[in-house]
Amino acid sequence: MNLRRKLVELSLRRMNIDRAAVVYLLASAFYPVLKPSVFPDPWANALLHGILALAIWFIPPLLRGSRHFLPRILGEIYLPMIFPLFYAEMEYLGIIFFDFENSLDPALIHLEEAIFGMQPSLEWSRAWPWAWFHELMEFAYFTYYFLALTFIVLVFKARSAMDDLQRWDAVRDFVRDLSITMLLCYTMYTLFPAWGPKFFRAGYVDVGGWIFTDIMRHIHDNGAILGAAFPSSHVAASMVPWWHAWCLFPRHRWWMSTLFVLLCMSTVYNRYHYVVDVFAGLLLGGIVMSFGRILGDKARDSWRFRRA
Dihedral sign, CA of 250, 184, 83, 48? Predict the structure, then answer.
């Protein structure tokens, strides 16, 4: 009876992002089996995905029931912490269905040329080959890696009228929107890979820079995965902390909005993305947050009702 009660309590603390993560893991475990020639040891990968899916099914709900801050926050934010694993797999998943020559890039280039009469990312960097502006754009692009953490810090440290329960709700809503957005991006990168203007037959554009230019060059030389351009996850995933901060922390709107606008600009100027990637990222982020707000999370509401 005690075991059954524990399992019921775990099921009530299981959030929709847990279910989404499990579905994504099982689906992405299956993709390499379709084309094992491009994926090293696909069956071992499938086993790893299965183990991780099983862990996600039980461990985060267990951690969410803790009275201590550290295990509880880990139970809430665990999924964004394993995004690097999902991203690294794009090296192989991005060429299972379409190789480089059959990527989405030609269609995106054709669309941009039909709209603008050119490729804005290439023409902009050629028109403004200023080292100081390039450095600003690379800095803005770099802030993507810290915006999510910044929002979590704001929730617990910024002056606000929220009580403890509202703070945890804010974290869950934010992580839900961020997680669903990124899982959809990874799925798009697998099914419809696009390399972006910097890597798809764009040619060399010489623009100088300094510290953040070198940092981003090092990141892209050692960790960037091609095929992850459409939609822009930098834009979609950065839109989530910007919007949640806008709604909850009015005093911080000015600098979060400034960073977000600069980041959107940087994706194009630095030639990491097409302009249409940016609009697709904004659209995706907006749709996910709208549906998240409407649907909420029934599991959380059930757990709260049971505790009451």
Answer: positive
Q: Which of 172, 157, 143 is nearest to 249 (CA)?
A: 157
Higher pLDDT pick, 249 / 32: 249
DSSP state of 194: B
How far is the C-alpha of 52 from the C-alpha of 25, rounded, in Å?
8
Q: Are 216 and 264 in contact (CB under 8 A)?
A: no
- pLDDT band at residue 296 under the 50/70/90 scheme: confident
The pTM of the full predicted model, rounded to 2 decimals, is 0.92
In this prediction, residues 168-172 reach a mean pLDDT of: 94
Token digits of residue 29: 């475990």
Report which DSSP code applies to 228: B
Exposed/middle/buried for 169, CB within 10 Å: 0-12, 13-18, 19+?
middle
Domain boundaries along the sequence of the chain: 2-307
